Amino acid sequence: MMRKWTAIPLILVLTFIVYLVMNDTSLQPEMTKVNDAAGLKSTKGDKTESKSIFPINSIEKEEPVNILVVGSDQRKNEAERADVLMVAQYVPEQTTVKLISIMRDTYVEVPGYGKSKINHAYSWGGNELLKQTLRQNFDLEINHTVSLDFQDFINMMGIIFPEGVQVTVSEGMINHWKWTKEPGKQLLKGEEILQYVRFRGDIQSDFGRVDRQQEIIALAEKNIMDKIKSGNGISTAIGLVRESFKNIETSLSIDQVMKHGISFMFHPVDNIETLRIPVEGSYRNVLKPGDGQVLEMEGQTNLEALKEFIQL
């Protein structure tokens, strides 16, 4: 059984901190070795030419960069479906990254197939059909894609949170994962963090899981920035770059990641804003033949919310 999944778009974390590594000339030989040894896997169809990121024009203006983060869960004798869908937008020269979480049961128009859950688009046509679906329903143009499997995520959490991260856990979560913990504030590590963001066995179901994914993003950002401010960020940055580009499947080249990292140096990101689609009050749970329970949304309401939230 093969599983591919992501809980948070760690590519954002990488680009957020990599400028420190690149700004230290003593570490450039190290980064060259990372580049050579990383074994970055590029998504098929990406024809972007690799270009040197030096010199960087600090006043160069660029269009928004939209990164689609797809986590998939493929079980035996079943089609692969997107389990997690996020779009991260970074606009050069701005200090905020926008993160959109799209509920996997959102009922949309899938080009060539008609109305269905948005995660079915990934089953039927992979990233390409999913990008077309996002374009048709939300006017979202995707520049790059990123995916991460379970073990990669656990490894990342070990680097970002070597001593663990404190979150609030429920009795239902403890029983589901058979943890020997008490409800309330608890320190989670590695696989426990993965289980925390995957849990959906309470009344909030997928909505609660999205909230926890976004919570871990904020905690990861804070932890990395605290390390940077304390002078311990370089080793964390190098570890993340090494670990990420070993196995992450992405249409981003390492040069592109570095380029955006340098952009952060001139315009540091100090905030991550989040939005969930469908937005509150714009959907209803409906039973559809062949699809089961879906989130039937008000298309115009959600499109307007997106337009207010990001640059389309």
Tags for this entry?
about 300 residues, alpha/beta, Nucleotidyltransferase, domain 5, 7-stranded mixed sheet, 4-stranded mixed sheet, globular, disordered N terminus
Could you explain how this protein is built, in words?
The protein is of the alpha/beta class and 312 residues long. The chain has one domain: Nucleotidyltransferase, domain 5, CATH 3.30.420.590. Helices cover 44% and strands 23% of the residues. A hairpin with a 3-residue loop joins strand 5 (106-110) and strand 6. Helix 1 packs across helix 8 and helix 4 packs antiparallel against helix 8. The longest helix has 26 residues, at 205-230. It is globular. It starts with 9 loop residues before the first helix and ends with a helix. The model is unreliable at 1-60 (pLDDT under 50).
N→C terminal distance: 38 Å
SSE topology string: HHEEEEEEHEHEHEHHHEHEEEH
Beta-strand fraction estimate: 15-25%
Assign the CATH architecture. 2-Layer Sandwich
Counted up, domains total 1
Radius of gyration: 19 Å
CATH topology: Nucleotidyltransferase, domain 5
Poorly predicted ranges:
1-60
Please identify the top-level CATH class. Answer: Alpha Beta
Give the strand order of the largest sheet, numbering strands 1, 2, ... along the chain.
1-10-7-2-3-4-11
Topology, number of strands: 13
- Percent of residues in helices: 40-55%
Mean pLDDT across every amino acid position = 74
Biggest beta-sheet profile: 7 strands, mixed
User: Structural class of the secondary structure composition?
Assistant: alpha/beta
Described by the principal axes of the CA atoms, the overall outline is globular
With helices defined by DSSP (H or I, 4 residues minimum), what is the helix count? 10
